Structure prediction request, 458 residues.
Amino acid sequence: MLPASFLNSLQNTPGFQLESFKRVHETSQAITSIRRNQFKKWDSGAHSFLHLNDSETNVETVPWCRNAFYLKERPSFVLDPLWHAGAYYVQEASSMFVQYILEQLKIPSQSVVIDVCAAPGGKSTLLANYFYDGLIISNEIIKSRNAILVENLTKWGADNTVVTQNDPSHFASLPQFFDLMLIDAPCSGSGLFRKDPDAIKEWSEENVQHCSLRQQRIVEETAAALKQGGYLIYSTCSYSMEEDEKIMDHIASIPGFQNVSIPIPASWNIVTTESEIHHAIGYRFYPDQVKGEGFFISIFQKIEDTSNYYSTAHFNFTPLTKNEINVIQNHFELPQGYQLISHQSECIAIPSKYENELRILLSHWYVKKMGMSIGEIKGKDLIPAHQLAMSYWATLPYQRHELNIKEALDYLRRASLQMEGPKGWTLMTFQNIGLGWAKILPQRCNNYYPNEWRILNY
Prediction:
């Protein structure tokens, strides 16, 4: 039951329809949607959970996002090896509207972008696919949520992502650094009440006001890091005008920022809203009007920046030794456009064209993950990193071994494996997508799937 105080607070909200809004929350219809990782190929027609096919004629697509689909029912994703392999991401459909915005703005794929409040990583994986030859920084200040972000981005397999753990106050150290800034701000969460009824107990007008103040602080402290001409996308999963329209007015009041509107098909039933003071345009998603949860999003462009301050780099990468380079070259060939560095006892491949940006980040911020971890060199051996197993690089070191569904789930449990085949390091795959490494020995097979990510029960 939705609290009367909550419903009363929405009475003057643009596009709000009380009776249908109440009905959709009373029925509690579960909406499940996924977005495919376009760089990991698998036979969707044969998939036992998703029931997709290559022509996509038997599934309903999310209208504002490519490679995104609604499922007829919610399966147990933990029992699907492809979910663990990063072949797709389970993401709320309304929040995928970011994809449509990027296409309308026509931002070049070679851009430096940041997801400011990134955990658990849904929007960051979307950014990684869209900006496939750009640099994506995913920031999350809360340590426990940052660990989940690292896991999800590792599984996604992109080699151009960086995970940082920095407070908005740290953004002042990177003036005019980003081409795009996405702020999916922490909010009161009312847009997810249908999906998470327990969240209703946490809602209060006091919490809405608290969130609004926090959102204003995040916007104020990060604004200087956006380049002149760059875009700011601001979103919440809240219906409250204090967290949506009021924040649009706050952004519009920052010198140099200008609201941007985009055309939206009327058939999508997305509500266009306008802020009171600056008449900025934003977009509201109501679950009784769209096939998705509650969501709000708006766009701004930084048309002027008179600061003339830019970030500088002080961090120097540690080059690999001649032996380390020889060991890696003996095992596989690095893709063109990447260079190897030594960082925290690991060999890491980074995109050469973003070397300066990465040096700047390491000079000023706390970086948890960057580039593609290749592994550790021990003597003449390469101990491959799990991250490398998850990548969608065409060429990887060592042999491959295709698992059936039972074997794959056993592997993901870190169970003992019994298998025949040549000895040595082996990439375990399911539908030809990497799951992780194992080492086949004469009398046993060692399972190297990360212990902290293993399936506990099934």
User: Anything to note?
Assistant: The chain has a mean pLDDT of 94. The radius of gyration is 23 Å. The longest helix spans residues 205-222. The domain at 312-397 is CATH 3.10.450.720 (Nuclear Transport Factor 2; Chain: A,).
